Every structure is written in structure tokens, then in C-alpha cells.
Amino acid sequence: MEYDITKAKVLSSLFWKLLERGGTQGIQFLITLILARILLPEDFGLIVIVTVFITFGGIIVESGLSTALIQKKEVDALDFSSVFYLNLCVAIVLYIILFLSAPLIGTFFEEPQLSSVIKVLSLTLFFGAFNSIQNAVIARSMEFKNLFISSLSGVILSGIAGILMAFADFGIWALVAQQLTRHLLVTIALCITVRWRPSLKFSFKRVQLLFSYGWKLLISSLIFSIYINLQSFIIGKMFNPALLGFYNRGMQFPSVIVDNINGSIQNVMFPALSAHQDNKQKVKEMTRRLIGMSSFIVFPMMMGLAIIAEPLMNVLLTEKWLPAVSFLQIFCAYYALWTIDVSNLQAVKAMGRSDIFLKLEIVKTVIGLTVLVISIQFGVHAMAFGVLLNGIIAAIIDGFPNRKLLNYRLSEQWKDVLPSFLLSCGMGSIIYCIKWIGMSDLLTIGVQIITGIILYVGLAKIFKIECFHYLLITLKSQKTKTVSIEGFEP
């Protein structure tokens, strides 16, 4: 299976990926809002603790091999089947470990019901072993329409199941049922929409070849996941599940937006960048576009979300969730930086330099843990600010390798995002003042959003921002199927 990536296919894939992420994330967000109004912050805090362990297991099951399948120039059925059987075996071993250690985890957190929840939710590891291969097949062929159908059906039906159980007073088990059902339904849908099936073949040689690239991504993902989830682990143990629920909910609002927009772009562009890995100039041009366009879209959304945080939280989740507002505002700044951070890392991975990727994660984690050790002494809010500080440092560190790999200097990168940053600050300072008019929360949110959009677009047009100009051209030319995927001139 070789890359066959045309300009039209990239744009079509980006459309379906945005639709898939936007649709599923949007529906999931609405479902979470409904569940949050019914259930208690403690329920969400407990499920976050369980998710920490499941996340680690999922990373190990995937082993970085699905990414290796996407990055490798040529793969065949033997590659896919070998990775699948290895992932399945790892999932079995990890499930047994989590099943046996579940009572100890419940005792450690002094929450007996965690034991049963972990035993049930750990079943999602098996679905992940299968879905990671299906997703690699989709990414290589850039047939993201299939993923849209599978994800949308899964999130809708599982959401209904979770809501019904919440109304029936099942508490945390409503969240468990929702997650488990979603993974099951997505797996079934992928089996229907994706034609790939494992063959009865396995090759240690193929696995070793893929693992030579993938193991560095595996370690990198584990390091990053440990650092991020360590926050939840510490809050859940040292403080209380309710505070963890506020912390996690504040993180979720901006992450939904960034995962939808930025994540969709990255998922589509990684195979596209990998296809041109022998052409450094092309990769640089595409990376510049990636950083510029992502920041132009994400920066104003994060600024706007931070400003409307309090009335939004009050309207959507009621007053019981207002303590999450300050966390939400901090994480808006953190996730805005991902536009620079993740784009640089995608280029590094696409160039086949997983060794550099690993080194970057080690350096960032050492710095992050140092900040965490210091900030934990000052409380949960200090920990959140510590995450933000580490995000700023990470955005700088992750940009260094591409200075040599692509001749893309840090000064160029920050120059590419500076217009979007300044426009967002200007827009934000104006719509912030609207809160003093004294309108109702709902009306204030509406006026701020509409005013913010008009101001941002208007300023982008007045100052002739390159990203805005390119975005208009892309939207217009897409209608006539003549849009170019070449790099823009900054």
C-alpha cells in the first residue's frame, strides 16, 4: 500500500475529518453537559482517575506502531496483521494486570467502587487494539468519511445510553456505560465501513522494523501522558474528587475546541507531510501553513472562550460548576499554544525523526515535573499555572529541531503567529468590556460572540492578514475544485 495523496484528496479528507471531529465532539460535549447537570462533580472526578490508568494502557497497546504504519512509505497486509496481533496480545496482558490491581487502586484512593469501574472500563483496551489498525488504514488511504460515519453513530447511541442511566440514578456507572458503549459501537461501525481484516500471518521482522520507529513514539507518549495525568492523580489523592472534577471540566471546554480544529488538521496533514518527507522545502511550506492557519483559527476562539467563561459555565452547567471557571481560563491559554507545539512535532514525526521526538519529550517532562513539584505546594490553581508555564516552554523547545530539519527558524514561526495573536488580543479587550453593560448571562454571551466574530474578521480584512486571505481563497476555490495544497508565501 503506497501513498496516493492528491491535492483534492487532502482537502476532501480535511473536510470529513473536521466534520467527524466537530460532529462527534459537539455531540459529546452536549451529552457531557446533560450528564454534568444530573451527576455530581465527584462522579466525574472518579472517572478521571480511572481514565488515567486506561489511557496508559491504551498507549502501550498501540505501541506507536499505528503511527509507524502511517509514516512508512510502503506497507502491506503482513505489516497490518502483524501489528494487530501484537496489539491484541499486549491488550490481554494489560487487562489482566489492571483487573488484578483494581482492588489496590480502589484502596489507595479510598474509593472502593473504583475497583469495579476499572475492571469494566479496561475492556476498552481490546477495542483500541483493533481500532488503531483501522484508523491507520483510514489515514493512509485518507478515507476519513468512513471514520465520520463510525464515530458519529457511536457517540450518539452511547450518549443516549449514558443519559438514560443517569436519569435512572446509576451515578458513575452512567459514565462507564457511555464510554464502553461508544468504543463497542465505533468498533462495530469500523468493521462495516473499513474493508481491512487481519490475515493469519505474523512477522517478527516486520514488527521489529516498525518498532524501530514506533518505540520512540511509544516512550514519548507515555512520558507526556504520565506528566499530564499525574496532575489528576495527585489532585484525586491529595485533595478530593470534587476538586478534580472542577479541574478536569475546566480543561475539557478548551480541549474540545482545540482537539476538534487543531486535531483534525494534524491527523490529515501527518500522512500528507509524510508523503513528502523527501522534499524538505515542501514540508517546510506545509508546516508554515499548518502553524499559520491553526493559530489564526484557534487563538481568537481561546481568547473568546476565556472571556465568556463565567456566564457560559453558569448557563450550561449551573452554579455548582462555577469553581471550574478559573481553570478553564488558564487552560485556554495552554491549548492556544498547541497550534505551534503540535505542528512542529508533526513535521518532526513526518520526517522520520522519532528519535528527536523522544528527546524533546524527555526534556519537556523533566522541566514539567520540576515545575509540578514546586507548584503543588501552593495548591491546585498553582498546578494549573504550572501546566501553562510548561506549555510556553514546550512551544519554544519543540520549534528548535525544525531549524535544522527544515530551515524553519523560531523567529519565522513566531512571526507567522504574531498577527493572529495581536488580533485576538485586540478583539478580546473590546468584547471583555461588554460584561459591564449588565445584561443577562445568555444575552451577554450572544453579544460577545457576535461582536468578537465581526471584530476579528473585520480587523483581519483591514490589515490584510495573509492567513485570512488564504482561507478565503481556499473556501472559494474549493467550490471549483482548483485549490492548491502548495505552501503559501508568508
TrEMBL record:
Superkingdom classification of source: Bacteria
GO CC, one annotated term: plasma membrane
One Pfam family hit: Polysacc_synt_3
Protein name: Lipopolysaccharide biosynthesis protein
UniProt cross-references to CDD domains, sorted A to Z: MATE_tuaB_like
Family in the record: Belongs to the polysaccharide synthase family.
InterPro entries given in the database record: Poly_Biosynth_Transport
Places the protein is found: Cell membrane
Entry keyword set: Cell membrane, Membrane, Transmembrane, Transmembrane helix
UniProt membrane topology term: Multi-pass membrane protein
Transmembrane regions listed in the UniProt entry: 46-70, 82-105, 117-139, 151-176, 210-230, 290-309, 321-344, 382-400, 421-439, 445-463
